[in-house]
Amino acid sequence: MELFFNPFDNLLCILLGISFTVWFTLLLVFIIVPAIFGVSFGIRRLYMKTLLKVFEWATLRIERGAKEKNHHLYKPYSNGKVYLDSAPEFEMSDIFYFARRGVESIMDDEVTKRFSAEELESWNLLTRSNYNFHYISLRLTVLWGLGLLIRYGFLLPLRVTLAFTGVGLLVFLTSVIGLLPNGRMKNFLSEKVHLMCYRICVRALTAIITYHDSENKPKNGGLCVANHTSPIDVIILASDGCYAMVGQIHGGLMGVIQKSMVKACPHIWFERSEVKDRHLVAKRLSDHVEDKSKLPILIFPEGTCINNTSVMMFKKGSFEIGATVYPVAIKYDPRFGDAFWNSSKFGMVNYLLRMMSSWAIVCSVWYLPPMSREEGEDAVQFANRVKAAIARQGGLVDLLWDGGLKRAKVKDTFKEEQQKLYSKMLHNQSLN
Amino acid sequence: MGSRASTLLREEEIEEIKKETGFSHSQITRLYSRFTSLDKGENGTLSREDFQRIPELAINPLGDRIINAFFPEGEDQVNFRGFMRTLAHFRPIEDNEKNKNSSASEPLNSRTNKLLFAFRLYDLDRDDKISRDELLQVLEKVDVEQKMSIRFLH
């Protein structure tokens, strides 16, 4: 027996014990307690400023290195434009116009580029977002290596711990609150619990969020509408206010979270089969908004994740129910980490790991003044008006294209309509 | 390396494409990035479906014909070289090129080659002649008024 006992083992155990305790105390004091009370030490903003300075240095270094070696740097938005000839003026030249437009859209079009991550001009020390990364200087590589170590060795475990804490607390506490009778106490507690857990999740992602115009925050009986970039949008909005969520019931961990959340306050979850039934969806939504004691509904009318450079077509369903709409614009700062979820490329777990191993998620949230449907405006026009306001505030491109084009082709009916228009014009021309 | 381009373009290839098409280094890398983002199957070639996924091309009346122009006779896949060769037709003619002697074969973006490209858009059965039917077929879908804008989006 004596052989298995080693004085070093004892020492090791003691050291491990101490470091765990220190770790958890720090975690508690600096992260969880502020999250519970909604205060902030400002550590994250300091971190952000430091990171920005490092990135600037890194970008300058790359540019200098490239100039020395006489390489051309890949810059996504400059120099690379291929200018095209203008069409000469003779009769059969009409074909030139359309041929040119067609080839222009092959080279770069407004729609498909919204479904892949935005390209950056500067480098943020993540290999996944840089084309020019080859060996430039020792210092840069060391910096990159150090960054890798910090992100995966320190930040990632920290964040994962926090994430588990946040989610675990959410499930546990909402189930406990669900046992209380309905009433003001329950609503009050549920609000506090939701906010606290979302704030922990926000810290789990090191999200540095700036809220603007909080006087326009959505009120009960209203509909909160925002542009969609990733599932994190929900956490960002819900850590500043209480919303009723809408969505499909999933299985697994998501399902557990959803079921326990709905015990504490009324969210709107649909079974898979009910999602297709548009009338049922509309009815449940309008029932919810009519009850003024219920929380505002959070909805993403684009229906899919867009890469945060533009806002795509809003589905008119939510704009038909006649509630006041509170638009919210969310704009992520891409320098710190790309928040866009390309669901055809990455699954949810992969995506969350990428998020948690980026430097930070920096974003701005603007609460826009409420809008209602005006006289003589139909749902589509109203939806477009809201969309334009959100795009304008967030500095995003306002597109009429449907986000569904991520997966589906342009509808044939749409194509045929365009062609019908042309042949009608031609017919009129030939009659004259 | 990056999750986007699975096979980065090698320097020799860039040089070859430069010689053949006249595009600059940065233009070639930019177009290569575009090529890989269109290539959903990630096999280094584009199929017709990859082109048809571009909504603005899908509503272009000449969309199908332009797509056809990329694919050589009878083939269903186009690689990056072929892609660049076709795009090169649309490169503007620079002044210093006009005076070059035609010791080498004519550059892809010469006036003649541009006209040849347009001719092939009319010539559906590729018999090097435009028949009356082919002409009428094109005019059916094309509006003679150039002012009609496809991009109704800003």
UniProtKB/TrEMBL annotation, chain A:
Coiled coil start-end: none
Any GO MF annotation of the entry: glycerol-3-phosphate O-acyltransferase activity
Entry-linked SMART domains: PlsC (SM00563)
Transmembrane domains' residue ranges: 20-43, 136-154, 160-180
Source organism superkingdom: Eukaryota
Cellular component GO terms held in the UniProt record: endoplasmic reticulum; membrane
Subcellular locations according to the entry: Membrane
Any single GO BP term: phospholipid biosynthetic process
Keyword terms: Acyltransferase, Lipid biosynthesis, Lipid metabolism, Membrane, Phospholipid biosynthesis, Phospholipid metabolism, Transferase, Transmembrane, Transmembrane helix
UniProt pathway annotation: Phospholipid metabolism; Lipid metabolism
Pfam family, one: Acyltransferase
Family named by the database record: Belongs to the 1-acyl-sn-glycerol-3-phosphate acyltransferase family.
Protein name per the record: Phospholipid/glycerol acyltransferase domain-containing protein
Source organism per UniProt: Sphaeramia orbicularis
Gene that this sequence comes from: gpat4
TrEMBL record, chain B:
Localization terms from the record: Cell membrane; Cytoplasm; Nucleus
Annotated family: Belongs to the calcineurin regulatory subunit family. CHP subfamily.
Keyword Protein transport carried by entry: yes
Organism field: Sphaeramia orbicularis
Domain EF-hand: 26-61, 110-145
One Gene Ontology term, aspect cellular component: nucleus
Keywords: Calcium, Cell membrane, Cytoplasm, Lipoprotein, Membrane, Metal-binding, Myristate, Nucleus, Phosphoprotein, Protein transport, Repeat, Transport
Name recorded for this polypeptide: EF-hand domain-containing protein
GO MF terms, alphabetically ordered: calcium ion binding
Pfam (any one): EF-hand_6
Any GO BP annotation: protein transport
SMART domains: EFh
Domain of life: Eukaryota
